[in-house]
Amino acid sequence: MKKHIGILLSIILAFTVILSGCRSAANGNDKTLTIGSVGSDAQIWQHIAKSSATKKAGLTIRVKTFTDGVQLNNATAEGKIDVNAFQSWTYFKSYVNESKAKVSAFATTYLEPMGIYSDRLKDLKQVSKRATVALPKDPANEARALQLLQTAGLIKLKPGFNAFGTVNDIAVNPLKLQFKEIDGSTGPRVLKDVDLVLIGNTVALESHLNVLKDSLFHEELNQDTKANVNILVTKTSNLKNKQLKRLAALYHSQDTKNYIEKQFNGTKVDIDKPISYLK
Question: What is this structure's pTM?
Answer without folding.
Answer: 0.77
